[in-house]
Amino acid sequence: MTTFQTSREIAATPAQVFAAVEEPARLARWWGPDGFRNTFDTCEFWPGGKWKFTMHGPNGADYLNESVFVAIEPARKVVLDHLSLPRFRLTVELSPSAGGTLVNWVQAFEDPAVAEAVRHIVEPANEQNLTRLTTEVAAGIARGA
């Protein structure tokens, strides 16, 4: 197995969810699992744009990350390649749903052995990411964003 998939319905329009992804300050607030915070060095949110940042773990460790945005379709899809180890492609698709927006999160690793080794981290972390995204979207709506 190299691919992890999860989804979440968020009570917001696809445009409202997308805004929490495309705006670097908002993305920095929710990206990553519980207890992490981010410092962005570069966030070029366009196809081919670089995204370099440091995730600061709750244990005090820093994790350097480098990605490139492969495809962006406003209010519909974001695809990025994580260039740092472990390498993976993340595809986030937004679809209108009865309750707002269905967010489909698919993370595909290059190496099956690596995917299996990080499975115990990735599966809960992806759920936490979507919970944090949901919180950020709700906060944005409350602020009128």
Report on this structure.
- The structure is a single chain.
- The chain is of the alpha+beta class and 145 residues long.
- Helix content is 33%, strand content 41%.
- It is built from three helices and seven strands.
- Strands 1-7-6-5-4-3-2 form a seven-stranded antiparallel β-sheet, covered by helices on one side.
The rounded distance between the terminal residues' Cα atoms is 39 Å
Strand content: 35-45%
* Rg on CA atoms, Å: 14 Å
CATH topology name, in short, is Alpha-D-Glucose-1,6-Bisphosphate, Chain A, domain 4
Estimate the global geometry from the Cα principal axes: globular
Quickly count the helices. 3
Query: Strand-and-helix sequence, N→C?
Result: EHHEEEEEEH
Structural class comes to: alpha+beta
Query: For the largest beta sheet, what order do the strands appear in spatially?
Result: 1-7-6-5-4-3-2
- What's the β-strand tally? 7
Please outline the major beta sheet: 7 strands, antiparallel
CATH structural architecture: 2-Layer Sandwich
List the helices and strands and how they pair.
Blueprint: E1 3-10, H1 14-22, H2 24-30, E2 37-43, E3 50-56, E4 62-73, E5 77-82, E6 88-97, E7 100-109, H3 112-143
Antiparallel strand pairs: 1-7, 2-3, 3-4, 4-5, 5-6, 6-7
Helix pairs in contact: 1-3, 2-3
